[in-house]
Amino acid sequence: MAPADRMTKPIRVLVAKPGLDGHDRGAKVIARALRDAGMEVIYTGLRQTPEMIVNAALQEDVQVIGLSILSGAHNAIVPRVMELLRQKDMADVKVIVGGIVPDEDAESLKRQGVAAVFQPGASLEAIVSFIRGAVG
Amino acid sequence: MKTVERQFTTISGVPIEPVYGPEDPGPENQAPLPDAGEFPYTRGIHRDMYGGKLWTMRQFSGFATPEETNRRYHYLLEQGQTGLSVAFDLPTLMGYDADHPMSAGEVGKCGAAVSSLEDMEILFRGIPLGEVTVSMTINSPAAVLWAMYLAVAEQQGVDWRRLSGTLQNDILKEYIAQKEYIFPPRQSMRLVTDTIEFGASHTPKFNPISISGYHIREAGSTAVQELAFTLRDGMEYVDWAVERGLAIDDFAPRLSFFFNAHSDFFEEIAKYRAARKIWAMVMKERYGARSERSLKLRFHAQTAGCSLTWQQPYNNVVRTTLQAMAAVLGGAQSLHTNSLDEAYALPGEHAVTIALRTQQVLAYESGLAGAVDPLGGSYFLEKLTTETEAAANRYIRRIDEMGGMIPAIEAGFPQTEIAAASYRYQREVEAQERVVVGVNRFQSDDQPIELLHIDETSARHQEAKLAALRARRDNSKVDRALDQLKRAAEGTENTMPRLLDAVRAYATLGEICDALRAVFGTYTETARL
């Protein structure tokens, strides 16, 4: 994307709730905060499989996927999303994960290509700046 | 940095004056309040409150396999806990067996995995169900898990009429807040009504439902929203049971409630007092209940999980203590105190022991359990109680005008009200208008704590048990039971007897829920921000 485009076109983000976890407070707060920061946000709603998430990301042509997982299933779900992105030649899409992810799991997810993991207490501002820095 | 040395609103945003006096509670409250044990029970449902019986110390607990959870239950009972409370994992809550593809990575993570009557037998091995009261946090498939529980009691030779405990079974707050639903709202309400009806004639000491504000609050609501949506949910269940033909006083005494104990001390106490008053008035005036037991709101409280911080986790012990004090001063019948490590994981044994000891210190050392409603008559608390009651009643009227809770849910009304409150709160934290100690002020390096890890061996164990069960049982009997269940679900007969037959034949949770999915269909929420 040319620099001029970047100035005018808002960053597009898919916020997704994978797995069986229904706790959507965090995902909704983040989605609203990103929207208030001028980004275009698509929220998938609940119970998305990795396949559904990657397809939505492709169709919506997003630069960032935000996965919110509080159930402890991140080690099963996130690697599958990363693998599908590689298969579909979408490795340039940045994946960020938010939720209850212990430090050692966060490190392991980052080694598998996740751009950032935000743990409880992370500020909205930190997430917004990270996305701007990673995509801008 | 902007400093805020004094909080001028409650955590829910209700303005607070610097001082309150005799004129504040308002002219309607100038007459002395009726005593505890007297209508409308603002001060408590019993005259002597904890002098008669301490609250039940009931730690919500469940992780990994039924075998491991059973060991934790024995441990908690040995440590002086007085009741059990079962946490099921997400596949169980969603009606999937441990070996279903949607269960991948989720088995045993958020609670105990229970896919069949065999798992339920293991869960309560060595625990006499005629003596220990058991609460089960299960909603969409609650009728199925309850059938398993009743079948275990039967095996133990315990008369169902002696069983005492609580089924959460509150599907409305799932659509509103926690989002663990399977079937559409009206089909779900039919199942709930089946359990209330079955309980009224078979299990006179068991609460078939625990109408819950806890999850509404955890989703980010204000105290008033928690109160209003919960009580309006309660009215919806009453409407359905009355419509079924049950007499109000035959089931209302067994309706129980479950509230959050959040951090704003006085606001929480006011919430519990207002809850008792509104419910008593509603039961008497709206439904014409005559029995005193129908009018008395009994509730379980749990300290606020969402208030726990990942940073400086030992501070969570202090938060939990203050929240538990509010629940006790507000007259809770039973209480769960969160463990200090629960911002990270399900609690480890050391952490859960501290949480239980917190309740024991409050009960036996603090003097809080002495006089009933000791803060009653405080100008501030009475004013806050009156305001909370009025604000909750305004919400209840709005939902009445929408045609009840189901149309309100379908229109996304409670969901969007909660999301707006939750976003407002987070913005205030972000702007440092609200201080969260250790998170946005007073930060320091974290002290590492020991955590409970649940790996995939639990899932493999559960999968192997299921495969063996499917090979061992009489599959033609299972098929027959599932067919009969489907026929009952298609018609109007109570599904409980058919569910009991199905679980006794060792049909699995997933198979039973699939049979019901085939008849009822499933529900998907419109994604809203």
Considering the chains and any ligands shown, give keywords for the structure.
heterodimer; A: 136 residues; alpha/beta; five-stranded parallel β-sheet; 5 strands; 18% strand; B: alpha/beta; TIM Barrel; 20 helices; 47% helix
- Proportion of residues in β-strands of chain B: 5-15%
Largest interface: A-B, 34 and 42 residues
Query: First CA to last CA of chain B: what distance?
Result: 31 Å
By CATH, the architecture of the domain at 27-58 and 122-430 in chain B is named Alpha-Beta Barrel
CATH class of chain A: Alpha Beta
Overall average residue pLDDT of chain A? 94
Determine the CATH superfamily of the domain at 27-58 and 122-430 in chain B: Methylmalonyl-CoA mutase
Decide which structural class fits the backbone of chain A.
alpha/beta
Largest sheet: spatial strand order of chain B: 1-10-9-8-7
Approximately how much helix is present in the residues of chain B? 40-55%
Report the sheet with the most strands of chain B, covering strand number, pairing sense and barrel closure: 5 strands, parallel
SS field, number of helical segments of chain B = 20
Helix and strand run of chain A: HEHEHEHEHEH
Strand content of chain A: 15-25%
What do we call the CATH topology of the domain at 27-58 and 122-430 in chain B? TIM Barrel
Secondary structure class of chain B reads: alpha/beta
What global shape of chain A is seen? globular
3D structure, described in words:
The complex is a heterodimer of chains A (136) and B (529). Chain A has helices at residues 3-8, 25-36, 50-60, 74-87, 103-111, 124-135; strands spanning 12-16, 40-43, 64-69, 94-99, 116-118. Chain A is an alpha/beta fold and 136 residues long. Chain A has a single domain (3-135), classed as Rossmann fold (3-Layer(aba) Sandwich). In chain A, helix 3 (50-60) crosses helix 4. The radius of gyration of chain A is 14 Å and the shape is globular. The model of chain A has no long low-confidence stretch (mean pLDDT 94). Chain B has a domain at 27-58 and 122-430: TIM Barrel. Chain B contains 20 helices and 10 strands. Chain B has a 5-stranded parallel β-sheet. Chain B is an alpha/beta fold. Helix content of chain B is 47%, strand content 7%. In chain B, strand 2 (60-61), helix 1 (66-78) and strand 3 (84-87) form a beta-alpha-beta unit. In chain B, helix 10 packs across helix 14 (379-401) and helix 18 (475-490) runs parallel beside helix 20. The chains are: A alpha/beta (136), B alpha/beta (529).
